[in-house]
Write a structure and sequence with these properties.
The chain contains 15 helices and 22 strands. About 30% of the residues lie in helices and about 25% in strands. Helix 1 packs parallel to helix 6, helix 1 crosses helix 13 and helix 2 packs across helix 15. It is globular. Strands 5, 6, 7, 14, 15, 16, 17, 18, 19 and 20 form a ten-stranded mixed sheet that branches. It starts with 6 loop residues before the first strand and ends with a helix. This is Probable malate:quinone oxidoreductase. Its cofactor is FAD.
């Protein structure tokens, strides 16, 4: 009886996962090393379908213009702008790279990005005072200096009529508004980036689930299985990037690298309300972010959100937090339990007590009726009618549980880059603002894992991304020039 054989090929790099992180890395490497043969393995039948999908991803183009969780308030009432400035700087890097790809003809259109004003909205005297302090802390920075602040109901009605209508004029409110905000369809951007990479030397294989990562001498063996035929394939490569969203954690664990030891993940799911009334959709042109409830994860910060998906304008509110043990929307119910290993079980157990407020919040969200969820919408849109909205399942997020010598386990709301000491493998864990800042994250990873090449790449990177290695916040002329130039190329000018 003939023995079955396993097909073995070779690539210069293998990228696991067909989302925006892998797509960004493929595009960068295609520009810097056009002679390399890259292979992308995606278990679904198309790329950009999980966290990068237009309905699953927040789509905001996270630049900290409106996201209040990036500007924490200290006990003395002061507001720190540092994290917001850092995130905005990283988003400008993404904008510059996208503008380069469009200007050079690598990407044929700009329909993946739209200009949408970013707003923050709060009510109550305490929150109004916070938003004023936040505005004052940010507006001195050239990346935020077009942001406007108001406590006027009349001005709110001009910026966001749906938020203003039906609201008592005696209510204490405050809002900020920035014309520099965007809506980004990261699913479409992902497809555009891969389409360019494929013209240079990248092979994208969909319907290929990675089932094993093993050392093979000085290389990695990436074993994948075809969902169509069941055939098993092994790709040998000197470098692997794991950009598989929530599934990155178990894949990195399977690799056995020391750097992933102690890390765990906590999955959070959710839902949106999507407007079905075209007249209402047409009357709102903003992303309006509020303050999170006590214990709420950053991904659950409520927002009334103008979005463009599949060429159509839409209006969404949410997300409402939920919970599922799956690590992907299309994952398995055993994902969370399978990720618990001897090296991270202590962190997984220890992270619960300090996050009881999060557990309580999630329990309340899961128990909330549709009526209670709709009531949350009316806080931002007093005139909303329940018949104009439908529920839509949001994407799955896996928040990082990071090892810490003092706290044993720390639940992080953000993005974590993991790289092996020998530079042979890297991966990205976590959620927002990962998609918006993916270019910076990939550049940081490339500097770590391709230390022998990064110096030769720097001049080319600087031509694609003029602010590379500098801070726009330190140079007002450079910041304004970058905003204006990228807005012009990407079709964002109002």
């Amino acid at each position: 009886m003939a023995k079955s054989t396993v097909d073995v090929t070779r690539a210069d790099a293998v990228l696991i996962g067909g989302g925006v992180a892998s797509a960004t890395l493929a595009a960068l490497l295609s520009e810097l090393e056009p002679g390399w043969e890259l292979e992308v393995l995606e278990k679904l039948d198309a790329v950009g379908q999980e966290s990068s999908d237009g309905w699953n991803n927040a789509g905001t183009g996270h630049s900290a213009l409106c996201e209040l969780n990036y500007t924490p308030q200290d006990v003395d009432g002061s507001v720190s702008p540092a994290k917001a400035i850092s995130i905005n700087e990283q988003f400008q890097v993404s904008r510059q790279f996208w503008a380069h790809l469009v200007e050079s003809g690598r990407i044929g259109d700009t329909s993946f990005i739209h200009p949408v004003p970013h707003m923050s909205f709060v009510h109550g005297l305490e929150s109004t005072d916070y938003l004023r302090r936040r505005h004052d802390a940010l507006v001195a920075n050239p990346l935020f200096d077009r942001m406007r602040f108001t406590t006027s109901h009349e001005q709110l009605a001009e910026w966001a009529p749906l938020v203003s209508e039906g609201r008592p004029v005696t209510e204490s409110i405050a809002a900020t508004w920035s014309p520099d905000g965007t809506d980004v369809n990261f699913g479409q951007l992902t497809r555009n980036l891969f389409a360019f990479a494929e013209t240079v030397g990248t092979t994208v294989r969909t319907g290929r689930e990675v089932i094993s990562l093993r050392r093979m001498g000085g290389e990695w063996g990436v074993m994948s299985r075809s969902s169509a035929t069941g055939a098993v394939h092994v790709t040998r490569t000197p470098f692997v990037f794991v950009g598989a969203g929530g599934n990155a954690l178990p894949l990195l664990q399977d690799s056995g690298i020391d750097e992933i030891r102690g890390f765990g993940g906590f999955p959070i799911s959710g839902e949106w309300l999507r407007c079905t009334n075209e007249e209402i959709i047409a009357r709102h042109d903003a992303k309006v972010y509020g303050r999170a409830s006590v214990g709420a994860p950053p991904m659950s910060v409520p927002h009334l959100d103008t979005r463009f998906v599949d060429g159509r304008r839409s209006l969404m509110f949410g997300p409402y937090a939920g919970w599922s043990p799956k690590f992907l929307k299309t994952g398995r119910y055993t994902d969370l339990f399978a990720s618990i290993k001897p090296g991270n079980i202590a962190q997984m157990v220890a992270v619960a007590p300090p996050n009881l407020d999060l557990m309580t919040y999630l329990a309340k969200e899961l128990a909330a009726t549709s009526g209670k969820r709709f009531a949350a919408l009316t806080e931002y849109m007093p005139g909303a009618r329940e018949e104009d909205w439908e529920p839509v399942t949001a994407g799955q997020r896996v928040q990082v549980i990071a090892p810490d010598p003092k706290k044993v386990g720390v639940l992080q709301f953000g993005t974590q880059l993991i790289t092996a000491a020998d530079g042979s493998i890297g991966g990205m864990l976590g959620a927002s603002p990962g998609a918006s800042t993916a270019t910076t994250i990939m550049l940081d990873m490339m500097a770590a894992v391709f230390s022998d090449r990064i110096d030769a790449w720097r001049p080319r990177i600087a031509r694609m991304i003029p602010s590379y290695g500098t801070s726009l916040s330190d140079d007002a002329d450079a910041a304004h020039s970058s905003l204006e130039r990228t807005a012009s190329i990407l079709g964002l000018s109002h």
